[in-house]
């Protein structure tokens, strides 16, 4: 069975950073990085997970493995069939949308979202853009995401 390699890039900002200047700064940031030594090997080395960017809450990425299904963020990835599914709404009654099956290469998914934050008596919106790079591979290849372009892109799954 191939290893699943996931790279999450999360950009978070608040209302004070909604200017055109801030938007240009966010757009100038990379949408992929080489896989580094700090990547987490999870579930008996079946999943390699790396996170870049912001994490205001300190626990942004939650994940679990059920049989061969990895549930992480808004994604459901089947380690056996190498399929990727996405949930637009995090409700139990809404099934995920099938995006693709990864036979070769890698895919990139992007979406934007916002959260209501209640912290220290203040309430504000935390905006974010999430970029997820996904591949299945037999060997650890640090340049898997930077040495080639994605075979498929799923941009702005949420608006």
The secondary-structure class comes to mainly beta
Q: Gyration radius, to the nearest Å?
A: 16 Å
Number of helices: 1
Shape: globular
- Major sheet: arrangement of strands: 2-3-1-10-9-11
Distance between the termini: 35 Å
- Strand count, sense and closure of the main sheet? 6 strands, mixed
Low-confidence stretches: none
**What is the N-to-C order of secondary-structure elements (H for helix, E for strand)?**
EHEEEEEEEEEE
Average residue-wise pLDDT: 92
Task: Please report the total strand number as a whole number.
Answer: 11
Q: What percent strand?
A: over 45%
Helical content (DSSP H or I, runs of 4+): under 10%
Describe the model:
The protein is mostly beta strands and 159 residues long. The protein has one helix at residues 20-27; strands at residues 3-13, 40-42, 47-53, 63-66, 69-72, 75-78, 83-86, 97-101, 106-119, 122-137, 152-154. It has a 6-stranded mixed sheet, with no helix packed on it. The chain is globular and about 50 Å long.
